[in-house]
Amino acid sequence: MSNLAMMMGLGSGAGGPVWNALDISSASYDSVSFSVNSQDTAPQGIKFNSDGTKMYIVGSANDNVYQYSLSTAWDLSTASYDSINFYVGSQENVPKSLTFNADGTNMYVNGDASDDIFQYTLSTAWDLSTASYASKSFNFSTVDGAFYGFSFNNDGTKGYLVGSNSDTVYQYSMSTAYDVSTLSSDSVTLNVTNEAALPYDITFSSTGEKLYVIGFGSIGNSVVFQYSLSTAWDLSTASYDNDYLDPDPIVSDNSVKDAAFKPDGSKMYLLGDQQNTVYQFTTA
């Protein structure tokens, strides 16, 4: 890799990660959106599969995860509902966030009623119709009584949760990758009170060098805040970039609950529950 590429934070090869150079405040709206109102009137979390041909939404109105297809990868204008959903209310009746393992054979849902994260198995990768509860969970009620968001590192050996009571992100390790029953605290935290007084969710860049906290900010709207980690995936090295995106003046939705990114960082998708809509942005 050239010195210039290293300075710019670019990975090797065309289309490598560009996260080190990302300026989220300069993201531009693609004027592309997709309504999930017909499925759920309180969408809380969004995730994509690894190649951008599937999208998943968890909603707390009906306690379901919903599956969508994108006929053109990462292009929200080509999205359609698969008429496939999976009910998680038997475990969590106020779901707030969802995520998957790297190959799409496990799904994880957490929520505010139980303060647990629950693990599910998909016998066919990324196919929600094949999901079943794996009878594995981990409780975070002693850490924060309002457990809203959870994320993994790139190999499933680290887990990160955000709590809205403490306005803090917590770092955990897993002795067995992607097995939430093996979670244990690293005693490493990041307080985000100065930025997000009510954090809803978190997501990382594919390189682990950027952290995004979605929450209610001091400006009175739901905002996406950007942090840098000088050591990838190590929360103890995180610092606020003084960089944020307020989507409300752009898309007229002041209750954005989650964000997802294309792996190279070039596209960002925001989920708003004021309009029950996903919005597509191009990052800068």
What kind of assembly state do the chains in view correspond to? single chain
Radius of gyration: 17 Å
Percent strand:
over 45%
CATH architecture: 6 Propeller
CA distance, first residue to last residue: 22 Å
| Largest sheet report | 4 strands, antiparallel
Number of helices: 2
The helix-and-strand class reads mainly beta
Taken in chain order, the helices and strands follow as HEEEEEEEEEEEEEEEEEHEEE
CATH superfamily: TolB, C-terminal domain
Arrangement of strands in the largest sheet: 1-20-19-18
CATH topology: Neuraminidase
Overall pLDDT = 91
Rough outline:
globular
The structural domain count equals: 1
Which consecutive residue ranges, at least 5 long each, have pLDDT under 50?
1-15
Q: Identify the CATH class.
A: Mainly Beta
The count of β-strands is 20
Amount of helix: under 10%
Describe what you observe in this structure:
Helix content is 4%, strand content 50%. The longest helix has 6 residues, at 3-8. The two termini are 22 Å apart. It is mainly beta and 284 residues long. It has a four-stranded antiparallel beta sheet with strand order 1-20-19-18. It contains two helices and 20 strands. It has one domain (22-282): Neuraminidase (6 Propeller). The protein has helices at residues 3-8, 248-251, and strands at residues 28-35, 43-48, 54-59, 64-70, 79-87, 95-100, 106-111, 116-122, 131-139, 147-152, 158-163, 168-174, 183-191, 196-204, 210-217, 222-229, 238-245, 256-261, 267-272, 277-282.
